[in-house]
């Protein structure tokens, strides 16, 4: 990452005006803040990136570029941080947005799927049953894919209700996240679905090692 971007990362306050002269793919990753609270928290906080107007726009452009020209009927975002990128992607594509919720929040009929999140905690995910019709082409969006458990549960819910996340040999919709780590679960998703993320290949090992 460029020296100016690293200075932004090290600054105690956000500089929402600075934009590097050359905006290479992933320049905005330096806007994310490292964990300063210990092992009970995620190793990196992307929410600072969302505060930067150009950073958010470029992140969205990079995420959606592989899907240009694809037939997408709806964007679905995963509770909770996936709501930010998912809703922004839906607005950009002029599509509807579907919230995939953690259990206990939806007051309508739902389909549920158990899963383990990145910390190994057992959770339950819910999706309203009236939003997806058979053949609906869905782009799934989350902030991060670490172990892949959360995204895989969302895929299973969408497909169980008849939605299409990917349908080879047709042009698929798929999965988008800022980072998709090279974990066993991440590889399972990459092998089966069209995926998009923002981490340049040269930086992928550092993200996989949480550096």
TrEMBL record:
Keyword list, A-Z: Cytoplasm, Glycosyltransferase, Purine salvage, Transferase
Entry EC number(s): 2.4.2.7
Chief location: cytoplasm
Superkingdom field: Eukaryota
Domain Phosphoribosyltransferase: 68-162
One Pfam family per UniProt: Pribosyltran
GO MF: adenine phosphoribosyltransferase activity
InterPro entries linked to this entry: Adenine_PRTase, PRTase-like, PRTase_dom
Pathways per UniProt: Purine metabolism; AMP biosynthesis via salvage pathway; AMP from adenine: step 1/1
UniProt-annotated location(s): Cytoplasm
Protein biosynthesis keyword on record: no
GO CC list: cytoplasm
Listed GO biological process terms: purine ribonucleoside salvage
Catalyzed reactions: AMP + diphosphate = 5-phospho-alpha-D-ribose 1-diphosphate + adenine
Subunit text: Homodimer.
UniProt record similarity statement: Belongs to the purine/pyrimidine phosphoribosyltransferase family.
Protein name: adenine phosphoribosyltransferase
């Amino acid at each position: 990452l460029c020296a100016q971007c690293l200075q932004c990362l090290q600054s105690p306050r956000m500089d929402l005006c600075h934009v590097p002269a050359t905006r290479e793919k992933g320049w905005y990753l330096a806007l994310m803040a490292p964990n300063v609270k210990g092992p009970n928290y995620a190793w990196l906080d992307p929410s600072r990136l969302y505060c930067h107007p150009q950073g958010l726009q470029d992140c969205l452009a990079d995420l959606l570029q592989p899907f240009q020209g694809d037939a997408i009927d709806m964007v679905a975002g995963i509770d909770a941080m996936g709501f930010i990128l998912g809703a922004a992607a839906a607005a950009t594509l002029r599509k509807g947005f579907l919230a995939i919720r953690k259990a206990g929040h939806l007051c309508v009929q739902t389909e549920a799927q158990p899963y383990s999140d990145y910390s190994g905690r057992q959770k339950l995910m819910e999706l309203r049953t009236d939003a997806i019709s058979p053949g609906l082409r869905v782009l799934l969006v989350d902030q991060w894919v670490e172990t892949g458990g959360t995204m895989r549960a969302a895929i299973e819910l969408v497909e169980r209700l008849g939605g299409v996340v990917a349908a080879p040999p047709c042009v698929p919709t798929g999965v988008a996240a800022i980072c998709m780590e090279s974990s066993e679960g991440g590889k399972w998703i990459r092998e089966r679905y069209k995926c998009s993320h923002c981490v340049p290949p040269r930086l992928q090992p550092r993200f996989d090692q949480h550096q």
